[in-house]
Amino acid sequence: MTDADYPLIQLHIAGEWRPAETGRTAPVLNPATEEVIGHVPLATAADLDRAAEAAAGGFAAWRAVPIARRTAILHDAAGLLTARSDRVAAVMTLEQGKPLAEAHGEVLRVAGALRWDADDARRAYGRVIPSAPGTLLSVRREPIGPVAAFTPWNFPAGSPMRKIAAALSAGCSIVIKASEETPGTACELVRCFEEAGVPAGVLNLVFGEPAEVSARLIASPHTRLVAFTGSIPVGRQLAAAAGAQMKPCLMELGGHAPVIVCADADPVTAARRAAAAKFVNAGQVCTSPSRFLVHESRYEDFTTAFTEAADAVVTGDGRREGVTMGPLANERRLAAMRELVADAAARGAKVLRGGERLDGPGYFFPPTVLTGVPPESRVMREEPFGPIAPIVPFTDLDEALEVANALPYGLAAYAFTESAATAERLVRGLEAGILSINHCGGSVHEAPSGGVKSSGYGREGGPEGLDAYLVTKRVSHLLGE
Ligand code: NAD
Fold it and tell me: Between vectors from CA 412 to CA 411 and to CA 415, what angle results, nearest 5°?
């Protein structure tokens, strides 16, 4: 796909595609070329109010659709998305930069996630509770109502779909502000739902000035749930605004995942698996392994194998055959990488690989390996959200656990050990919502993902994934004497 094939970006409100009321737009860039590939409309307050009202009407219509029909429509949308996966992946690579194969995998995964949620909603059982004769005491689970959702640019299909799939499966309507930096993929997703027969107003897509959009939609009397994926500082702002209105939130925020490589682990296998995960999406993943704590007896072997794996990464335009890591998604990440490396180097860390942006155009930053990184370095304390791997040695496991748990983050954690007893100690000791042992694989839709501590609350995926979108109603019915 060339820049010229990039889709027209519009708002989708009450079943209609339209520009923003004032015609205001912002440019969309290809991060591999820095060229403008399209323009994203910036919604006005009136556009947003219309979207919130449309979602209120959409909710009334959607919850009245029989569950079997709802499920069938959502399966049809998943089918359309699967059939169009080549095109949607190409749009994603153009606007976000990730290699085509990664983008394609993401599109197929989200189609699977949609099917899973749609099926799971059929099992949103309530219960009947034993009670006195002549009374019927039951518990029902009902859709919470219109959702206001805000998603970032790193998984242009994955993040929006998690929210759309759960909301629509549960019987809710949604106004989603997908990222202004990756709006094309979001438009492609919405088209699949529209063509599958989702009624007007059920799924509304907006773009705009993020802070204005979230303030308006959270304050709307129609909004019943706020769902956000993004950074901790923005999550705090949105949760505070929602709290002021007594509206519940689902918060999927950042992480700084430790990888603990124990003395009994095979350091080469651990290094290869950790490096494979580290450079996925150029490290711009909330669960990316990002602090490598390696037992001192394995430190050298791990570092050598990790560096070899980093050397094997092919950085370039994600559309090119053979490329395994694309550019960073925007210039802000490039600046952040430079600052983190400079700070670590100034404190005495050694830059074993990478560390400098590659010649432009494009926001390319190579796999970067740092050793001897002091704990007070920014890269050891702040989520790097990029292809930087700081590797540090530890002497005993309690010390490693202390370092791993020292930050306010608590999203993902990884550990490598051959001992079941050590694994259990790590399971109990690590403060994280997602823990992988002896691998660094990604999420699966059958199981819940989410954080503890400042990394957020609520879960996406698994049977828990519908919880935020459903409310519980206790019904006691006096049937008569
Ligand atoms: P950012 O925090 O400004 O933005 C992150 C996302 O939130 C963007 O999509 C943005 O449009 C949106 N956003 C920002 N302010 C908002 C507001 N007031 N209301 C609604 N949405 C708002 O940062 P960024 O430069 O885009 O990304 C940098 C940091 O964000 C990273 O270091 C990382 O910590 C975090 N991030 C996390 C995830 C994740 O999956 N948890 C994804 C992307 C970014």
Answer: 150
| Residue 234 CA, ligand 1 centroid: distance in Å | 7
**Angstrom distances, CA of residue 61 to CA of 8, 69, 200:** 28, 13, 9
Residue 332 near ligand 1, beta carbon < 6 Å: yes
* Cβ atoms 113, 107 nearer than 8 A: no
What would the pLDDT profile of 337-353 be if each residue is shown by its tens digit? 999 999 999 999 999 99
CB count within 10 Å of CB 391 equals 25
Specify which residues 388 forms β-bridges with.
368
Looking at the domain assignment, is residue 481 inside a domain?
Answer: no
Cα dihedral 449, 451, 457, 460 in deg (nearest 10): -10
Q: Is the full-model pTM beyond 0.85? A: yes
Q: How many structural domains compose the chain? A: 2
Ligand 1 contact via 385 beta carbon (within 6 Å)? yes
Active site residues: 252, 286
Gap between the Cα atoms of 329 and 284, Å rounded: 8
pLDDT digits (tens, 9 = 90+) for 46-81: 999 999 999 999 999 999 999 999 999 999 999 999
pLDDT of 174 reads 99
Sign of torsion over alpha carbons 86, 92, 95, 99: negative
Whether residue 300 sits in one domain with residue 371: yes
Whose CA is closest to 423, among 443, 408, 433, 438? 438
Looking at residue 481, what is its pLDDT? 63
Is the CB of 252 within 6 Å of ligand 1?
A: yes
Cβ of 83 less than 6 Å from ligand 1? no
Are 174 and 295 members of one domain? no
Q: Whose CA is nearest to atom 18 of ligand 1?
A: 211
What's the domain range around 94? 3-253+454-475
